[in-house]
Design brief:
8 strands; globular
Length: about 270
């Protein structure tokens, strides 16, 4: 994997690529809120010798810092498109975990003709109809909640609360320690992320997925109402869904082999 940097007016975005054949599909791995490229290390390890691979540290996350918090979800999708165009990536298949899945849906809204495949890992639909007014209200007011919560409690929730496997919890602990001693930045990233998510939902756009797609969700996902959202998403759209046993919100770290196998199956319908 080669590390590169993309400059925006608000800061630099760090990303990693391994391109074998630009005419083939490229797996675009997008980590969730407060996580970074390491979240997909088991996927990168498996796929980088077989397919084109891309992963980033989202704006303001990990190495993509410093970064001004003056952007929305659509901006993230546009920057992603700019990077993919710069790299000559023509057939992107987005694999988005949690917030990464929302970025993927924003990309699908803006560039439906470019997206060749979409996999949601423990994410949820962006359409406004799935969420309540109270949930939207809360999403826009989360930063002070994170800021005043004790760091040790946040650390526990951010590790044990999103993964059930020893590996998954250890990995998230390592990722969260990026912000150890800087709870303000962690709170800003979290609060801003939920705020722009709510704003994207309030746009009430179609956010249709018009390419081959798959929903993946851990049966033990306790992050918000993720399981309820995915059941409704599958029912309303007909997008196939795979439930991962003994997996939490980060099902790709709790059951990497099973998730990797599901990714391969979707790719085989596209290539």
């Amino acid at each position: 994997m080669i590390e590169k940097t993309y400059k925006t007016p608000l800061g630099n975005i760090h990303y990693w690529t391994n391109i074998i054949d630009k005419n083939d599909v490229t797996l675009i791995f997008l980590p969730g809120l407060t996580a970074d490229h390491r979240l997909f290390e088991k996927q990168i390890e498996y796929f980088e010798s077989k397919y084109n691979v891309f992963v980033w540290d989202a704006p303001a996350h990990a190495s993509s810092w410093p970064f001004q918090f003056d952007f929305d979800l659509m901006d993230k999708a546009k920057w992603l498109n700019d990077i993919l165009e710069y790299e000559g990536i023509k057939r992107p298949v987005i694999v988005g975990q949690s917030m990464g899945g929302y970025v993927g849906q924003a990309y699908a809204e803006l560039y439906p003709e470019k997206l060749k495949g979409f996999i949601s890992i423990d994410s949820a639909p962006l359409q406004k109809k799935y969420i309540t007014g109270m949930e939207l209200w809360l999403l826009k007011r989360m930063e002070p909640v994170y800021y005043y919560y004790p760091w040790k409690s946040l650390l526990k929730a951010g590790t044990n609360g999103v993964a059930v496997s020893e590996y998954g919890r250890k990995l998230m602990h390592e990722i969260m320690m990026t912000y150890d001693g800087d709870k303000k930045r962690y709170s800003q990233i979290s609060g801003h992320g939920f705020k722009i998510l709510a704003e994207a939902m309030e746009k009430d756009l179609p956010y249709r997925i018009e390419c081959p797609a798959l929903l993946i969700c851990g049966e033990k996902d306790k992050a918000g109402s993720c399981i309820r959202y995915n059941k409704a998403w599958h029912k309303n759209t007909g997008i196939p869904i795979a439930w991962i046993k003994n997996a939490g919100h980060n099902s790709n770290t709790d059951a990497p082999e099973e998730v990797n196998s599901l990714i391969v199956k979707l790719i085989n319908t596209i290539r």
